[in-house]
Amino acid sequence: MNERLTEQKSIYLQIGEMIETDILRGILLEEEQVPSTNELAKLYTINPATAAKGVNLLVDEGILYKRRGIGMFVARGARDKILAKRRDAFAENHIAPMLTEARSLGITKEELVTMIEEKSI
Prior knowledge:
61% helix
């Protein structure tokens, strides 16, 4: 969790996303303990309640779970849940607007696929 907080989005959302990203990258594994809210608060110089809000968001989504008296841990299947959530967000935030613009320009599906293939690495 070496990322920096920005002013573009609520801090608690950024905390949640950073934990998710660490799970996706394999930095945090299933059944592994995540940093405590106090550790997160100290690391990012934020209020522990703000850090807790970001962590609790992930608990509500089933990505983390609490072991009473021990801390928060990565749930089984968390990586798959995060991938599904982020793929849905990608489709909604990037693909849907692209398709809307393509339709307005009269670009066919075939032309769009060709454009994507030409821009591929």
